[in-house]
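Lab channel / #folding
Pinned by the channel admin:
"Please post every new chain as: sequence first, then the structure tokens as a reply. Keep commentary short and put observations after the output so the thread stays searchable."

First post following the new format, from NK:
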Amino acid sequence: MNSTIGIIAAMDVEINTLKGKMTEISTESYFGTEFLCGKLNGKDVVCVTCGVGKVAAASRISAMIIKYSPKVIVCIGVAGGLIPELKVTSLAIAENSVQHDMDTSPLGDPVGMVSGINMIYIPSNEYATETLKKSADECGIQNVLGTVASGDQFICDGGKKDYIKSTFNAIACDMEIASMAYVCYINNVPFCACKAISDNGSDDAQMQFNEFVSIAAENSAKVIEKFISLYNR
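Reply from TO:
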């Protein structure tokens, strides 16, 4: 069985902290992007920056699965918070995820349903998610477990934020997790995700994002280091 742990993030800032702590590093170009291989906390890892958005995320995580067959893939990075319990730089851990901009309701489908698998909420791997939760707790980083809603939009509108929260009972919103979860689900690859909150998804979200993205990314990286130490499947 392959022992490699896959780590994927949308932006370089979200993964650079981990890169600086890896050893035995090598790089390989595949499928139009650069994969970084090495060891972190003594375990084999492969890391990639996928780019922003659902298509970029799905294509890169598919390439990772084909090329490296990781035993588990964890998505890290930043997201917008949708609930008061999630303060800036705290963590949203995805128990499941949904595409908030998937809508074939004119054809009679529920909003958010993904055709083919006929699911709205795509579950993360239970053991991996439990390990992420334990990792965050041991790092002393405040966190909430729940639904993360993904879409090809940077949410900076209070009305849109309220719609996503109320429609899907979501705790946070990002632009990648749900598409990654879909790819892993149909390929039977364990998947989990945690996103540090960089903004509150409202009208001042852009200002908050620019101010807090680096700190938020560092928090998610700390948790992934701990996750790699604790994950034993």
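NK: The chain has six helices and eleven strands.
TO: also worth noting, The radius of gyration is 16 Å.
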